[in-house]
Design a protein that fits this description.
It is a single chain. By secondary structure, the chain is an alpha+beta fold. It has a domain at 7-47: Ubiquitin-associated (UBA) domain (Helicase, Ruva Protein, domain 3, Orthogonal Bundle), CATH 1.10.8. Helices cover 47% and strands 22% of the residues. The protein has twelve helices and eleven strands. Strand 9 and strand 10 (258-262) form a beta hairpin. Helix 2 (21-30) packs across helix 3. The chain is elongated. The mean pLDDT is 89.
Amino acid sequence: MSTPISAQMVKELREATGAGMMDCKGALAETGGDMEAAVDWLRKKGLSKAAKKAGRVAAEGLIGIQVRDREGVVIEVNSETDFVARNDLFQGLVKMIGQVALDIGPDVEAIKSAKIGNNGIPVADAIAESVAKIGENMTLRRAAGLKVGQGVVANYVHNSIGDGLGKIGVIVGVESSGKADELAALGRQIAMHVASANPLAVDSAGLDPAVIQREKDILADKYREQGKPANVIEKIVESGIKTYFKEVCLVEQPFIFDDKKTVGQALKEAEGKVGGPIKVTGFVRYAVGEGIDRSEAEG
């Protein structure tokens, strides 16, 4: 007599093997609820590879971008090697996940739970199946989105290896009631600038106050050690912070297409051509593997 298959049994089998939920259900059904036999069934089918790979560092992969109307998303899906990033199956997976993110929003856990494809499997299971087929650990690491009320969400992919796929991806919200085609062209230039110059915020108001304070403290400590008086240090810090803003704030950076003007000046000049005020409402820049400790031991 077979054991009734519970959600807890499926969960335990998934944790033990890393296989997809539907595969675990199928394995338990095929083996009458026998957990050990289900593990063996999955191994024979080549579906339990995912668990063995899950401890390995996935610091390569692709950035994926999807845009529609006045909204866009950017995601990072990691793999262990750059070779896999050039695999058609992996690229298709990234595009599919990007489309889900565009449809339901950029919450990673919600994306993983969302069902896709004709067979309606969760994204997390689709990733696990790809791990089993390709033989490398893969993870959906992060996702972000932007919307504008009017205007465009422009995008740019650096080191592109496919439509909306590459090593650096940028989306930029450009708000304006002006001409859409002119705005799109300008928005793409701004996105390319963000990819190259890597600003931290649109302007100083968008910077984390803690980051600003840290910069001030570094400057003050430096000149305090040199024996400068407090009133002099105060002026130096004030000047130094302005210089810092020019380095890290988008609208204050020299525009890569004309470094004699700032991005803010370029936006102002473009208003006549576009036919209305222009405002950058936000941007997201993802680079593959940034912040991942690649020195971790691989299992």
